[in-house]
Amino acid sequence: MNALLVIDVQSGIVNGGDYKEELFLMEQVITDFKESNRPVIFIRHIDATEESPLNRSSIGSEIHPPFKDYSDYSIEKQTPSSFFQTELRQTLENLGVEHLFIIGFETEFCCMFTAIAAYDRGYKVTFIKDATGTTNTAESYDMQGLDIKRFVGTVLRWSSVIEVVNYAEYAEKYK
């Protein structure tokens, strides 16, 4: 069985930038999964620091409102990996999931760490790179010209163990 992980699509992240294209593609993938009755699992990052927009008591920690009703399951995490000290593995085992599709936010952290952790746990992983977004920029890393999504996609593709596709490739192969 296939399942979709929707990582960190939370108001505290989405409201911080212009992510129209990424959100549109995310919604397309989510809709595909919902229409074919495949599980959609939302992952929420919860920060412990009071000032964080992803603090549990903050509205920013909530799933971005237009996406809220899509979730079949919701799992909270406190690290970049959606597997570390969460019930994700057990949920996937209960569902009989063998293949994970990954979309969401913080491409170079939460999405990438989760993709690697999923592979390490024996899942087939498909990373839909243009259906991810990040709040960081080339300036965040002091690396002029860095295209974060392209870089992460290239690294994961070079691993030869995680399938990296753009939305058009996903739609052609899996829709």
Automatic annotation (TrEMBL):
GO terms for molecular function: hydrolase activity. Residues 3-155 form the Isochorismatase-like domain. It comes from the Bacteria. Pfam families: Isochorismatase. Keywords: Hydrolase. InterPro entries: Isochorismatase-like_dom, Isochorismatase-like_hydrls, Isochorismatase-like_sf. The keyword Hydrolase applies. Belongs to the isochorismatase family. This is Isochorismatase-like domain-containing protein.
